[in-house]
Q: What sequence folds into this?
């Protein structure tokens, strides 16, 4: 009963009748308010109880898998010792050790470049393909699915394939270079080339995600805007830079920050292709943290590295959260 | 768009002559050319992009160097099952992934409902907490969890692995569910409440029953994460017979001479399930994918 009234009220509002309309709207509201309120308060007490029970499993898991480890990581980061024993309290010594080690800064620098290339490289490719696929082309749907494959196929599988393609001088791609008279590039043995290879691999893995995000954003853009713009004589490029980009800006911004989090946290893409080598050229912060803990058995410094990453990522994700909240209010 | 222009009454007489007035016919030609140019570009890009995947399939199906088989063969695949623990690895991966998917959805759906319908400080605080946790590097929690799980006998154990997978999927999964529930009008539930339905009842009977696409997209997300994970597996799995497929594939590289036919055969087996899931359920994922759900809130 009340739903019907609400709906008709909404319909009135849509037709512009409700505000100061002829009587009906306000009378209705007066009629409904006591009953409505009564029902609401009873319901909200019940809702609070139900909400509590519905949240319990989630909260337990969050505490067990995220909360407890985070606190314990704080303990480990401020103690010496190894995986088996926590050791003595050393304050911020582990952080000092980490921050004064050249390996950390080298890894931080590589992580920075890896992230920049990963985010903007995959965005550029993803945006380009989303634009190409926006207009109707033959078999467009099939291409959309095929182009998602790099993202869908497990990293272990694709890194194996990439390994086969580039690892040794006799692999397929170095052989092609050789037959073209371009020398025999050692993609994974030369430090600079290995860095480039890992970044290209990351872009290959990530562009489908960007393509999905951009496609979704483009789909929500009203095409009549373009018709109006082309009537006014706007060129293709003007339409792109002055209509398309601003209209998908929010989604773009969110996808950049998400991809930043993905890139900074990325372990398998780098570790499986190069293991962090050659001579640590592709050691990112995660790889360094993993090796410090599980290969050098220096738990404190390893967790300290993870903590420094954590702080950076918390800042990034709070910024992202604010952005999302702000835009959902708009 | 070009067809619309072509159909315009003005476009009749000025066929092909693009000198005066509005060159509508020329635009239409350009439209057709543009379509084919786009098709060729996409075809070429897709072909290049898929090279590593095609290479995997081709190597898996061509005879190994020491084999007597010719042409395309399933010999590598049957060999990898008979000569390695591939069957057990596959089984381990399937069990872990399936358990992760089921538990993730079972935890995330109720929590997502609260995030979607609750309007209190505590709820929005919890929402922020989930969001922050989702962005933390898993390596931070892996080290303490390793010690905790070692004491509980959960290292080198599929249940331990599953617990961590559920823990790491539940944050984003909850957000995805919440975003989907947002799209279900509250008036449907109000109608149920008037009929005497409880809040829990309206959640299961009204909201959940109408949320198949949301549940599926969350399930796909959890599936991909658990199926593809390498970092947690490499830390927590020690013995051959507990390996999941990623560890199984990697174990080929510990020998001096990599058996490429074997590793590619196993790689093909490993990439089939996600491809099948995507080929059949793709439309659900593109609607409610992670990005979409975060962008939509």
A:
């Amino acid at each position: 009963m009340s739903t019907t009234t609400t709906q008709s009220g909404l319909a009135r509002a849509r037709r512009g009748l409700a505000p100061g309309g002829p009587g009906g709207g306000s009378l209705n509201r007066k009629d409904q308010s006591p009953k409505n309120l009564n029902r609401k308060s009873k319901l909200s007490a019940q809702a609070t109880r139900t909400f509590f029970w519905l949240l319990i499993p989630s909260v337990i898991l969050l505490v067990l898998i995220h909360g407890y480890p985070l606190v314990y990581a704080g303990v480990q980061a401020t103690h010496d010792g190894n995986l088996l024993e926590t050791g003595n309290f050393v304050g911020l010594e582990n952080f000092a050790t980490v921050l004064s080690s050249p390996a950390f800064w080298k890894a931080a620098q590589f992580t920075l470049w890896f992230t920049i290339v990963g985010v903007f490289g995959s965005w550029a490719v993803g945006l380009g393909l989303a634009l190409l696929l926006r207009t109707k082309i033959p078999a467009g749907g099939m291409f959309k699915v095929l182009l998602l494959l790099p993202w869908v196929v497990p990293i272990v599988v694709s890194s194996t394939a990439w390994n086969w393609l580039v690892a040794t001088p006799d692999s397929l791609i170095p052989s092609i270079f050789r037959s073209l008279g371009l020398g025999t590039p050692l993609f994974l043995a030369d430090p600079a080339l290995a860095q480039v290879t890992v970044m290209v691999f990351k872009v290959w893995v990530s562009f489908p995600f960007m393509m999905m995000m951009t496609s979704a954003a483009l789909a929500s853009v009203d095409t009549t805007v373009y018709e109006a713009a082309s009537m006014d004589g706007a060129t293709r490029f003007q339409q792109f830079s002055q209509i398309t980009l601003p209209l998908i800006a929010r989604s773009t911004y969110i996808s950049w920050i998400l991809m930043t989090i993905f890139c900074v946290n990325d372990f398998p893409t780098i570790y499986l292709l190069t293991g962090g080598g050659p001579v640590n050229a592709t050691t990112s912060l995660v790889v360094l943290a993993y090796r410090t803990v599980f290969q050098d058995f220096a738990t404190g410094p390893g967790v300290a590295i993870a903590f420094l990453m954590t702080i950076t990522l918390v800042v990034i994700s709070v910024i992202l959260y604010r952005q999302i909240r702000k835009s959902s209010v708009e | 768009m070009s067809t619309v222009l072509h159909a315009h009454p003005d476009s009749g007489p000025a066929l092909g002559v693009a000198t005066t007035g509005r060159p509508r016919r020329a635009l239409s030609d350009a439209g057709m050319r543009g379509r084919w140019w786009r098709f060729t570009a996409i075809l070429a890009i897709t072909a290049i992009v898929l090279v590593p995947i095609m290479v995997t399939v081709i190597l898996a199906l061509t005879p190994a160097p020491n084999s007597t088989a010719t042409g395309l063969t399933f010999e590598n695949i049957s060999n990898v099952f008979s000569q390695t623990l591939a069957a057990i690895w596959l089984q381990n991966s399937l069990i872990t992934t399936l358990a992760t998917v089921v538990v993730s959805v079972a935890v995330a759906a109720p929590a997502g409902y609260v995030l979607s319908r609750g309007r209190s400080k505590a709820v929005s605080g919890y929402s922020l907490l989930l969001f922050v946790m989702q962005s933390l590097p898993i390596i931070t929690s892996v080290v303490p969890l390793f010690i905790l799980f070692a004491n509980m006998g959960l290292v080198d154990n599929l249940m331990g692995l599953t617990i961590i997978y559920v823990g790491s999927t539940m944050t984003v999964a909850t957000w995805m569910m919440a975003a989907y529930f947002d799209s279900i009008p509250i008036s449907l539930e109000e109608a149920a409440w008037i009929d005497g339905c409880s809040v829990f009842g309206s959640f299961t009977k009204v909201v959940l029953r109408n949320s198949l696409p949301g549940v599926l997209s969350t399930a796909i997300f959890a599936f991909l994460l658990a199926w593809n994970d390498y970092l947690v597996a490499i830390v927590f799995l020690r013995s051959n017979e507990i390996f999941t497929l990623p560890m199984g594939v990697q174990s080929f590289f510990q020998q001096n001479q990599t058996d490429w036919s074997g590793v590619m055969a196993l790689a093909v087996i490993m990439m089939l399930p996600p491809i099948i899931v995507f080929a059949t359920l793709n439309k659900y994922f593109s609607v409610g994918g992670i990005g979409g759900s975060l962008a939509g809130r």
Remarks:
- Chain A touches chain B through 100 residues (CB under 8 Å).
- The mean pLDDT of chain A is 82.
- DSSP finds 15 helices and no strands in chain A.
- The first helix of chain A runs from residue 2 to 14.
